[in-house]
Design goal:
Layout (H helix, E strand, L loop, with lengths): L1 E2 L6 E2 L12 E4 L2 H4 L20 E7 L2 E6 L8
Antiparallel strand pairs: 1-2, 3-5, 4-5
């Protein structure tokens, strides 16, 4: 996991567990780090290609929630 206090960039890598069906939530401090907005993407760690099949939701301005609608696409 990496967070840049210089520009607010955040990068993390994780292993998908296909037995977990709940979403994952990430906390951000939008007022402090992203007052002008932000963009978030999911990319394959080996190819860097943006991945599809992810449901992204902002549950409030400080919580980003994601889950996979086809988990099997991410376990291979």
């Amino acid at each position: 996991m990496y967070f840049s206090p210089t520009n607010g960039g955040f990068t993390t890598t994780f292993v998908v567990d296909d037995t977990v069906t709940a979403g994952t939530e990430i906390y951000i401090n939008a007022d402090i780090w992203y007052p002008n907005g932000y963009k978030w993407t999911f990319s394959h760690p080996n190819t860097g290609k943006e991945m599809e099949g992810v449901i992204l939701k902002v549950t409030n301005k400080n919580f980003l929630n994601f889950s996979f609608f086809d988990i099997l696409d991410y376990t291979t």
